[in-house]
Recover the amino acids of this structure.
């Protein structure tokens, strides 16, 4: 009976409501995206134009030279490549190592499992700044300062990744493994051909989180790689600020180029990003 | 052959099964070895060693001597430590503003039949996925005292602007705002998921009882969301206590920016001590104190949750 009454009442309410809703959401969107738009526009302006009062919205003349100037000032291309290599290596390594460990913790019984797992969890709770000095000494001892392995090595291993994947492995019914065991498959075979495909969504989520962390990380690269040629793009940008601090168009062009790979990744993999965030819950 | 015995399907492999004799898998150690050894070398050993080293004076080439709590006493005597501590706590408080914004947008985006949810979510998410260093640079430009867009905008209303990040009274807030702005998208995603998990019948029942939207929000959505809010508060506090990137990029160095000490965080002070001044004893003590602070504030939050978090 009241079904229709209810619906019409809420429909009337929601028409006004949806105008207000969109108004608030649009205002929010402008605040969120505004700086980014301004960055893009500034990246195309000439330096004198950025100092004009009142400011121009659109560039009087669209200058592409700011983008090439970034490459002239810094080994910017090299740094982009560094970031890509590091992100790819760290992600592949983490997926491989963490999934192996996670599988064992979730599916195999062995002596000391609880203790080992507790040890893994304790790593999760330590802030990474606490580790930076000894990590730096390890890298220095290995003669790896100012090299890409210095950026990659610590990132290959993750207690968080192991924990996340373990939760997924644990929810898979035993039957899948047992069928394979009956067919005479070994543990590694089962892991690769049966279990890994079943946790693909979790692997995708972990990959997204790992790529983002790796791409965005600043403190560790600043510490281990002080040579511009071996820096990732995050650290490279900060040095661009030192050298070109008055030249905002060039700075904005650099900032834009450094952000674009991650933005493209997001557009291509929205679902994995959102799922990764929903699953993660650890990120500064 | 015990593995082949039939038994009811189990949700969790690690559930104890006392009735069945255990089979131990020695291959498990091989599976765990790569990540285990990596964590041991690059995480556990450094953690223990930082703790040990915070009680020593660092020689230039090893050769550390035990000095008891001298490093800690030294830190407490540092004026910059106390200002960095105060700043960091302020960053934390400002950072918490992220959550009400994220909740507001999440609630609006969960309205039934709303168009463009994916577009809005993507737009709100962009600040979170752009490189933090890049965001810091962009905002620094917006904050620029001479040509920054913010001052131009305020000028329209006749409000005098300032040099936002080099004015000691505004620098910290200016940086804090960027932190909030960049994190909203992340928490938005979590809150959207949280609201989706609330059973629809609750709102329908309330609507039949004549509750308006406002009442439904305060009486149903918000209480049902408290576990998510609790989770986000924990994560957010831990993250903002470790703020570094934005401070580093926007506040630059002590010589360049008069507002440096007014906006420096504990981690940026740590970086300064460890890698600019090469004062590693002080740095390790700082790092350890930060961990204690994070631990203490997390503990307090867990204690307080009984008062306000509703679990169904």
């Amino acid at each position: 009976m009241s079904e229709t009454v209810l619906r019409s009442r809420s429909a009337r309410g929601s028409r006004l409501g949806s105008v207000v809703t969109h108004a608030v959401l649009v205002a929010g969107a402008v605040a969120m995206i505004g700086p980014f738009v301004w960055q893009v526009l500034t990246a195309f302006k000439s330096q004198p134009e950025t100092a004009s009062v009142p400011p121009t919205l659109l560039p009087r003349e669209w200058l592409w030279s700011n983008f090439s100037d970034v490459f002239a000032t810094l080994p910017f291309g090299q740094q982009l490549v560094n970031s890509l290599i590091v992100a790819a290596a760290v992600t592949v390594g983490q997926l491989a190592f963490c999934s192996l460990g996670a599988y064992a913790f979730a599916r195999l019984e062995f002596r000391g499992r609880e203790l080992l797992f507790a040890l893994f969890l304790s790593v999760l709770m330590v802030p990474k700044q606490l580790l930076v000095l000894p990590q730096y000494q390890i890298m220095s001892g290995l003669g790896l300062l100012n090299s890409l392995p210095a950026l990659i090595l610590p990132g290959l291993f993750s207690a968080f990744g192991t924990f996340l994947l373990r939760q997924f492995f644990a929810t898979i019914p035993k039957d899948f493994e047992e069928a394979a065991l009956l067919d005479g498959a070994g543990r590694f075979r089962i892991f690769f051909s049966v279990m890994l495909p079943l946790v693909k969504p979790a692997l995708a989520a972990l990959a997204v989180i790992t790529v983002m962390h790796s791409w965005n990380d600043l403190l560790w690269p600043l510490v281990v790689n002080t040579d511009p040629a071996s820096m990732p793009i995050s650290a490279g940008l900060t040095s661009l600020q030192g050298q070109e601090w008055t030249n905002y168009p060039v700075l904005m062009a650099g900032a834009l180029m450094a952000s674009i790979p991650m933005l493209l990744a997001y557009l291509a993999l929205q679902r994995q990003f959102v799922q990764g965030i929903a699953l993660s819950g650890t990120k500064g | 052959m015990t593995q082949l015995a039939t038994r009811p399907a189990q949700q969790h492999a690690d559930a104890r099964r006392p009735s069945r004799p255990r089979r131990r898998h020695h291959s498990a150690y091989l599976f765990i070895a790569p990540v285990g050894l990596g964590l041991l070398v690059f995480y556990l050993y450094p953690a223990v060693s930082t703790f040990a080293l915070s009680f020593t004076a660092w020689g230039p080439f090893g050769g550390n001597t035990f000095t008891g709590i001298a490093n800690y006493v030294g830190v407490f005597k540092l004026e910059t430590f106390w200002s960095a501590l105060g700043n960091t706590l302020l960053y934390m408080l400002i950072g918490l503003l992220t959550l009400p914004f994220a909740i507001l947008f999440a609630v609006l985006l969960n309205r039934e039949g709303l168009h463009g949810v994916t577009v809005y979510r993507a737009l709100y998410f962009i600040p979170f996925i752009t490189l933090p260093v890049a965001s810091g640079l962009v905002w620094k430009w917006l904050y620029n005292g001479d040509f920054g867009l913010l001052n131009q905008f305020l000028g329209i209303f006749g409000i005098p602007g300032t040099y936002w990040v080099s004015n000691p009274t505004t620098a910290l807030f200016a940086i804090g705002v960027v932190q909030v702005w960049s994190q909203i998208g992340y928490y938005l995603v979590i809150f959207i998921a949280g609201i989706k998990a609330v059973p629809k019948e609750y709102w329908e029942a309330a609507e039949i009882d004549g509750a308006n939207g406002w009442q439904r929000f305060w009486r149903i959505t918000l209480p049902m969301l408290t576990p998510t809010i609790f989770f986000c508060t924990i994560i957010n506090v831990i993250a903002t206590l470790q703020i570094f990137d934005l401070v580093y990029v926007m506040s630059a160095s002590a010589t360049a920016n008069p507002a440096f000490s007014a906006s420096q965080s504990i981690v940026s002070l740590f970086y300064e001590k460890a890698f600019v001044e090469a004062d590693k004893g002080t740095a390790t003590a700082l790092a350890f104190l930060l961990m204690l602070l994070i631990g203490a504030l997390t503990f307090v939050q867990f204690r307080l949750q009984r008062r306000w978090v509703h679990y169904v």
